[in-house]
Amino acid sequence: MRFFIDTADLDQIKEAKELGILDGVTTNPSLMAKSGITGAKNIEDHYKKICEVVDGDVSAEVIATDFKGIVSEGEYLATLAPNIVVKVPMIKDGIKAISHFSSKGIKTNCTLVFSAGQAILAAKAGATYISPFVGRIDDINWDGIALIRDIAEIYAVQMYDTEILAASIRNAKHIVDSARAGADIATCPLHTITGLFKHPLTDIGLEKFLADHRKGNPS
Ligand code: G3P
């Protein structure tokens, strides 16, 4: 499984990169606004900065919701850096645009996916990635991980190339469960990635190893 970080915060992106386990970045308009990045020019510049830090794919989301608008915005975003992936919402015009981008060799991430049917449409249109929102499905008392499992099964049976990018990951368990369910990638806030480190027996074990070492090697 690959790890993307789900943030527009450059410090967090750099911290994840320093861990040596970062494969890419996803952003969305809410994350940009949360980092205080507003206005088309600032947003563009910010994407360029992120792409300079990260070698892997960086998802940049379109704001337009009509076919022509999505295509012109997406084609422009794709010129900002070679690792830009155009993030497009799961709507009719979005699917049309994904099919267009796919024919032009522009990578896409179909976002706001909440059902297996939507995942099939995105794969048929040639999306590079789909983003099923695990946490938001759990929020309405459905099963986000079951959706990942379902899509993984369908994509394997149908031999679709589209990769499953588990999104709206809220905790370390979501990452582990997504890996087991067949997600190709999890895109996570930094705290969920660092949450994977935590185990009390690791802390207790390390403390004991160091204490025993000190006993045999008094300073
Ligand atoms: O990748 C999508 C993600 O940013 C949404 O996460 O926590 O707002 O549901 P959340």
**CA radius of gyration:** 19 Å
Distance between the termini: 44 Å
Q: Order of strands across the biggest sheet?
A: 1-2-3-4-5-6-7-8
Number of strands: 8
Mean pLDDT: 97
As a percent range, the share of helical residues equals 40-55%
Bound molecules: SN-glycerol-3-phosphate
What percent strand? 15-25%
* Poorly predicted ranges: none
Short description:
The chain is of the alpha/beta class and 219 residues long. The chain has helices at residues 10-18, 29-34, 40-53, 67-80, 92-103, 116-125, 134-139, 144-158, 172-181, 190-195, 200-216; strands at residues 2-6, 24-26, 57-61, 84-89, 108-113, 129-132, 163-166, 185-188.
Kindly describe this structure:
With 219 residues, the protein is an alpha/beta fold. Helices cover 54% and strands 17% of the residues. The chain has eleven helices and eight strands. An eight-stranded parallel barrel has the order 1-2-3-4-5-6-7-8, surrounded by seven helices. Strand 4, helix 5 (92-103) and strand 5 (108-113) form a beta-alpha-beta unit. The longest helix has 17 residues, at 200-216. Bound molecules: SN-glycerol-3-phosphate. Residues 6, 26, 28, 31, 131, 133, 135-136, 167-168, 170, 187 line the site of SN-glycerol-3-phosphate.
What are the SSEs and their pairings?
Layout: E1 2-6, H1 10-18, E2 24-26, H2 29-34, H3 40-53, E3 57-61, H4 67-80, E4 84-89, H5 92-103, E5 108-113, H6 116-125, E6 129-132, H7 134-139, H8 144-158, E7 163-166, H9 172-181, E8 185-188, H10 190-195, H11 200-216
Parallel strand pairs: 1-2, 1-8, 2-3, 3-4, 4-5, 5-6, 6-7, 7-8
Helix pairs in contact: 4-5, 5-6, 6-8, 8-9
Bound molecules: SN-glycerol-3-phosphate.
